[in-house]
Design goal:
With 162 residues, the protein is α+β, with helices and mostly antiparallel strands. It has a single domain (12-161), classed as Thiol Ester Dehydrase, Chain A (Roll), CATH 3.10.129. The chain contains six helices and seven strands. The chain has helices at 17-21, 38-48, 53-56, 58-64, 74-79, 81-88, and strands at residues 12-14, 34-35, 89-91, 96-106, 116-129, 133-144, 152-161. Strand 6 and strand 7 (152-161) form a beta hairpin. It is elongated.
Length: 162
């Protein structure tokens, strides 16, 4: 279950690609805080087959982990980028979007169960892709509430088609 807080900025709604292109280099609205639960971590472990004890064994992690509680998978933060972006911006003329790739992905800080995350970012580049599409490079930072270091920093690339 994802827990959202109500005091965030409104979602940015853009009419079309022309207006969207004007956002290159500008900051996007900050995302809503979401709480990372043990259930989310367990579900990610089931989906990926990564059942390392530091993620899924609460008792062992509490006793033996340097963090004293379970830690989310680093790739869980990356996998949430699409949804986090969808929650802060939409282009009304888009009929379909797909993930294209990632550049320069780093996980500077672990995400402990119970942490709250949000996305901050900007659009680094937009270029034409085929007849009706755009290739968008997003600068994404997944912040951890109360932490100086983020959970994830990545250039995320997506395709959008109108």
């Amino acid at each position: 279950m994802v827990e959202l807080q109500d005091n965030s900025m409104a979602k940015l709604e853009i009419e079309n690609f022309q207006a969207f292109k004007a956002l290159v280099g500008k900051p996007l609205p900050e995302g809503d805080w979401m709480t990372i639960t043990q259930e989310m971590i367990n579900d990610f472990a089931k989906a990926t087959g990564d059942h390392q004890w530091i993620h899924v064994d609460v008792e062992k992690a509490t006793k033996h982990s340097p963090f004293k509680k379970p830690v989310a998978h680093g790739f869980m933060s990356v996998s949430m980028l699409s949804k986090m972006l969808e929650n802060i911006i939409s282009v009304k003329s888009v009929k379909m979007g797909v993930n294209y790739g990632l550049n320069k992905v780093r996980f500077p800080s672990p995400v402990l169960v119970g942490s709250r995350l949000r996305l901050v970012g900007s659009i680094a580049n937009i270029e034409a892709y085929g007849d009706t599409g755009l290739k968008v490079t997003w600068n994404c930072t997944v912040e951890i509430e109360g932490s100086e270091k983020p959970a994830c920093v990545a250039e995320f690339i997506s395709l959008m088609f109108s």
